[in-house]
Amino acid sequence: MTLTVLFCVDPLHPRRVDPHFAREAAAVRDHYGEIALIDHDALQRGDVEHAVRSVPRDLGPAWYRGWMLTSAEYTALAGALRRRGSPLLTHPDDYQRAHELPGWHDTFAGLTPNSVWRPLSPGEDPGDLSDLVRPLRGGPAVVKDYVKSRKHEWDEACYVPDVKNLTRLRAVVSKMVALQGEFLAGGVVIREFERFDGAGESRVWWVDGEAVLVGPHPDSPGTLPDPDLAAVAPAVRALGCRFITTDLALRSDGEWRVVEVGDGQVSDLPSTTDPMDLYAHLPVPD
Ligand SMILES: Nc1ncnc2c1ncn2[C@@H]1O[C@H](COP(=O)(O)OP(=O)(O)OP(=O)(O)O)[C@@H](O)[C@H]1O
Ligand SMILES: [Mg+2]
Predict the structure, then answer these.
(1) Who contacts 83 (Cβ-Cβ below 8 Å, separation ≥6)?
(2) How far apart are the C-alpha atoms of 215 and 203, rounded to whole Å?
(3) Does any ligand 1 atom lie closer than 6 A to the CB of residue 194?
(4) Closest ligand 1 atom to the C-alpha of 150?
(5) Which whole-number Å values give the CA distances from 70 to 61, 73, 130, 132, 182, in the listed order?
(6) Domain named ATP-grasp: which ranges (predicted)?
(7) Which end of the chain is more exposed for a tag (fewer CB within 10 A), N or C?
(8) Which fold has domain 114-192?
(9) At the top level of CATH, which class does the domain 97-106+197-279 belong to?
């Protein structure tokens, strides 16, 4: 069978791949693979049938590569594609487990900063957080939602100097919730802060439990750290998802730490990485 990848469509040119993914689509075609288009805007509007309407019927099992989807959007997309004869190779449960921190955190315990979380709806008041942060050690912490941080608003909506200062914590969490607006994913996550070496993260791409590509994180595309994967690989296999990424940073004491896990279908591939280095490793269904 051929490698089939469903890319997001260019909102301005409905027959073209979104320019952000054009390089990748070209790599799939060069690899004798097949591509089709998904309308991400339609998916966000809740019109899943419109989102998949240009996918040919009975195209067969496929990977998605595109913008991030909420777990609900991914589930809707997977259902519509299954009915169309093009099931996604990552099950919605596996997508959510890799995409949202509560899904992968415990599997990576000891390898990732200790974290707590609580579900929260967009715009909801976080309330009293004292019980939530009790398991965390005192000192600095990082706040995010189940998927994304407001790292560019670090002091006001991401970093707290002391997690046991509940007034300040609540202000930072409220600001993060306000800035995420309707896109708040799942709820609030609070993580113990760890000091990294500042050299940039390494994004490792895993397929069926094997590291197939070690590249830079999109925030530091020019640097290429060389992480030790010995401790991470068993956790990746335990998570049991077919296609994921792990972002690794070197802690100042020399330990490689997992900053984040992500679903490989929606992790950004930096423009400095040759897409062929990834797509050559994506399994083709038999
Ligand atoms: N526990 C932590 N200790 C120290 N620094 C952290 C911690 N968590 C996050 N950071 C810093 O904040 C940045 C953003 O965090 P994280 O990667 O979790 O959020 P994000 O918004 O999902 O980012 P992206 O998807 O772009 O990688 C990290 O790259 C790291 O530099
Ligand atoms: Mg990150």
Answers:
(1) none
(2) 5
(3) yes
(4) 21
(5) 21, 5, 28, 24, 12
(6) 139-282
(7) C
(8) Dna Ligase; domain 1 (3.30.1490)
(9) alpha beta
Residue reference for tokens 């069926």: 208
Tell me if 83 CB under 6 Å of ligand 1: no
Task: For residue 41, report the distance from its CA to the centre of ligand 1, in Å.
Answer: 27
Contact 177, 184 (CB under 8 A): yes
Note the pLDDT of residue 225.
82
What is the residue-averaged pLDDT of the chain?
96
- Enumerate the domain spans of the chain: 4-89, 97-106+197-279, 114-192
Mean pLDDT of 45-63: 97
Q: Rounded to the nearest whole angstrom, what is the distance from the C-alpha of residue 273 to the centroid of ligand 2?
A: 17
Quick one: residue 60, left, alpha or beta (phi over 0 = left, psi -120 to 50 = alpha)? Answer: left
Give the Å distances, CA to CA, from 195 to 120, 124, 143, 201.
Answer: 28, 31, 15, 13
pLDDT confidence of residue 32: 86
In angstroms, the CA 27 to CA 39 distance is 20
Confidence at 101, pLDDT banded by 50, 70, 90: very high
pLDDT tens digits along 11-41:
999 999 999 999 999 999 998 899 999 999 9
Q: How far is CA 19 from CA 24, 67, 253, 271, in A?
A: 10, 12, 41, 12
Strands 34-38 and 4-10 come out as parallel
Same fold, 97-106+197-279 and 114-192: no
The single residue listed with the structure tokens 């169309």 is 84
Asked if residue 148 has its Cβ within 6 Å of ligand 1, the reply is yes
Q: How far, in Å, CA of 185 to CA of 39, rounded?
A: 21
Residue 167 pLDDT greater than 80, yes or no: yes
Who surrounds ion ligand 2 at CB < 5 A? 247, 260
User: Would you give the distance in Å from CA 86 to the centre of its chain?
Assistant: 23
